[in-house]
Amino acid sequence: MKELSLPEPLASPVLGERASAHSRARALLATLPFVIYVGLRVPSLMEPHWYSDEAGYATTAWFSIHGLALYQTIWNNKPPLLFWIYDLALWAFGPSEFGLHLLSTLAGLVALGALWWALQRRANGWRRLGPLLAAAVLLGIPFLGGDLALPENFLIAPEALGMVLVLEGLERRQAGWMVGAGLVLATAVLIQQTALAAVGAAVLLVAVRPEPGRGSRIAALLLACSVGVGAGLAPYLAAAGPGRVWYFLVGSYRGYTSESLPLTALTLFPRALAGLLLLVGAVGRRRDPPLAQLAAVWLVADLLAYLLPNRAYPHFLLPAVVPLCLVLSGLHRPQWLKAPRLLRLALPASAALCIGTWATLFAMNASGLFSGLLTLEYIPLSLGRAVGTVTGTQYLSAFGLDTLGESEAVAFIRSHHLEGASAVVWSANAWPYLLAGLRPILPTPAIYMDDFWLGERALVNRVRSALPELVVVDGSGLPRALHHFLDSSYRVVERGAGGSAVWLRENVPG
User: What are the backbone angles phi and psi of residue 149, rounded to the nearest 5°?
Assistant: First the structure.
């Protein structure tokens, strides 16, 4: 008897078109956070030279490859990889904000990509798209310094990527992932020391997990990180000596912190309690899915580390954006609605304590207010500058009168062919060194750091003995002793906005 064979069902053209349209829509949604982030960062590519920390890093990088030795004849308290990044931008684009902010934009894209990787197999729908959109906005707007090229802007890339490798190692229970994580996290530490908070969080995560083999994975992570950091510092240890490198990278922060963190119960108790709750909470969440535990521990570690100096700079919070958005990816899960055990409350309590302390600091500090105001004005200001409705003077003034005054000083120096002169830039913003090709006589570009490391008397004496050809002053003024010295040996050749001035030595034509 002949068997009957049924024809295979024909694919519906309508269903095929719907599936294709659905795939395209999903692809567009997947790229939307990256597009939003890049769009928010475009205005930063045309920013003026206004931020003092960028000026110090750029000038240090420039002079460290033009005859001055880092940690020896030019001083800074940041690790060397930060200056290598600045050197790359200066080599490729010259002393422009475009190159610096282009590289920091790329770092933000890597951090966003690491967040996508962490969520890609572990979250769907809005649990994936929502955190990515939130991260795109928080990393792109000026409120947390997302528009700048500071250490935090660069370290978010290797820190986020390294912590995702830790996540893979936790899930796969393989030491190889921890080796990769350690090497990547080492590059974050070589950009700024505070990335050690992420390393500590990673070690804590592995240590409290109930799976076997914890010791080998911790050893692999720490050994790889130590080798990476050691290799990066080795040339400087050999050239400047371990004592100098230790002082600038570690010891110098003792005074920095003691200035703003008085050792009282009011300042120490919240930080100590937050640290204790972090340890207790990590243990209490040890049986959670690795993503949930990693996100919470990493977030609190970052918040606590950047809270320690007691300084309310908004950009300190930028590295916490990625772990915050990872935490947000799980907020609407049903188990969050259940009454948690006491130990499970420890991490949220630690985070709340850190955030409350941060909020108090912001309320007492004008830097957060300025970044908020700049965020509101940023896009209209940039669009107005692009189409010509905002003048160059108006644009510079929005970033501060010191920015306008120093740009006028640089223009004067160039127009009078005074490039290459020995100089002191008596300003927090050291951009004139680089933009006008001036030769520094002080060991660190930013004048407030010279004052901090040398002391005012030694600083004034060094200026007196060196007799620089030029002194560029911003509106904050000069010490009385130095003003008397300038009055006797120099003349004012240019005055600009905000009280800025250029002083030229009497026997120098110009």
Answer: -125, 60
Question: What pLDDT is stored for residue 350 in this prediction?
Answer: 92
Backbone angles phi, psi at 472, to 5 degrees: -105, 125
> Does residue 503 sit in helix, strand or coil?
strand
CA 312-352-341 angle, to 5 degrees, is 160
Q: Which pLDDT value is given to residue 337? A: 43
Pair of tokens at residue 35: 């597009």
Nearest to 434 by CA among 102, 152, 86, 150: 86
Span 42-50, average pLDDT: 90
Q: Give the count of alpha carbons within 13 A of 155, CB side only.
A: 31
Distance CA 437, CA 419 (A): 5
Query: For residues 176 and 379, what is the distance between their CA atoms, to the nearest angstrom?
Result: 44
Closest alpha carbon to 365 in 431, 416, 316, 425: 316
- Sheet arrangement for strand 470-473: 439-440, 422-426, 470-473, 501-505, 490-495
* DSSP-assigned beta bridge partners for residue 364: none
Inform me whether the pLDDT recorded for 298 exceeds 60.
yes
Closest Cα partner for 410 from 398, 427, 389, 395?
427
pTM across the whole model: 0.90
Model pLDDT, residue 338: 47
Contact by Cβ (8 Å): 171, 190:
no
DSSP states of 169-237: HHHHT-HHHHHHHHHHHHHHHTT-GGGHHHHHHHHHHHHH-SSS-HHHHHHHHHHHHHHHHHHHHHHHH
The more confidently predicted of residues 285 and 242 is 242
**C-alpha closest to that of 220 among 245, 171, 186:** 186
488 alpha-carbon distance from chain centroid: 43
> How many other CB atoms are found less than 10 A from the CB of residue 123?
18
Say how far apart CA 268 and CA 258 lie, in whole Å: 12
What are 110's strand-pairing partners? none
* 502 pLDDT higher than 70: yes
| Domain chopping of the chain, boundaries | 28-367, 400-505
Token pair of 392, please?
């160059």
C-alpha to C-alpha distances, 239 to 70, 84, 231, 235, 236, nearest whole angstrom: 9, 17, 14, 6, 5
Confidence of residue 25 (pLDDT cuts 50, 70, 90): low
- Tokens standing for residue 38: 């890049």
Q: What is the per-residue pLDDT across 167-194, written as a single tens digit (0 to 9) for each?
A: 999 999 888 999 999 999 999 999 999 9
